[in-house]
Structures are given as structure tokens and as C-alpha cells.
Request: fold
Amino acid sequence: MGLMRLRRTAVALAVGVVTSGLVAAVPATAAPGTGPRPSACRPANHLAKITEAPHSAGHHHYRVTLTAPRGYAACTLAGSPVDVRFSHHGKDSGVRAGRYGKQGHKVVLKYGHPVHFDIQVPTKARQVRADEVGFTLRAPRGEIPGTSFADGKLKVARGTLIGPVRAG
Reply:
């Protein structure tokens, strides 16, 4: 009887070692109920920064660059952001922006692949300072809920226009 018990123990140990080796070789999956990774297009899930861009005839330009941190799902954006508001030290400037350019072009925002849009400001208009831009991003099928914010120094004026989101 002792030999039979020893054989069962040896078989049980062998099965345990093989099973644990298989478990280690299988990639981990999300635990039930955790769902997919959150989208980089949601306002809280990307970073946005305003920088000065090269000027054109009659206009100042600023670039708003969006970057996705590691761990967020890629997402598709299209067209110019809407509901764009400019503020300076938390006070709304009162300037509202229109948009320009083709609005159907799609771009993908994901880790390591930033996107940007242009803010075009007329040089001849009375300009006011701003240090923050609030905006709503658009996907191919409509607006993405929530307001995104970008920080950086800029001047805006009546007639300011927002270009469509582009790669880079």
C-alpha cells in the first residue's frame, strides 16, 4: 500500500508542475468585469499642450498637441474640435472660434503617435491673452463627451479659427 500511495503522490506532483508551466506560458487576460482599456480620446485620458507655430500672411498660429499616455486604447478623431473656449487665469476671454479645413479626415491618437490641431488668429484684430483652451474633440460619428483642456501662452481675437486634427 505504501508504494501505491507514493505513485499517486508522484503523479499528482507531476500534473501540478505541468499545469503550472502551462499557466505561465498562457498570456494573462483581463479579469472578468474589468473590460477593455479606456480610450485615449476621453478628456481625462490624454495630455494637451499649446505651442507657438510658424506665422502665415495675416495670421498667428498656435499648435495644440495631444498625446496619449501608455496604457490607453487607440482612438479615432476627425475634424476640428468644437465648443472651443479661451481663458486667461481662469477668466473666459469671450472669444469664440470657428473652424476651417476639411472635416472628414480621420487620425488615430495612441501612445507614441500624437495628433495636433491649429489655432489660426488674425493679426489685424484686437487680441487678448489666453493661457488655456477648453475644447470638445470629435470622432467620425460625432462629439466625444466632455471638455479637454490645453495649457500654454497664446493671444486670440475675433475671427480665430480652429483647423482639423492632424497626425503628428
The helical segments are 2-25.
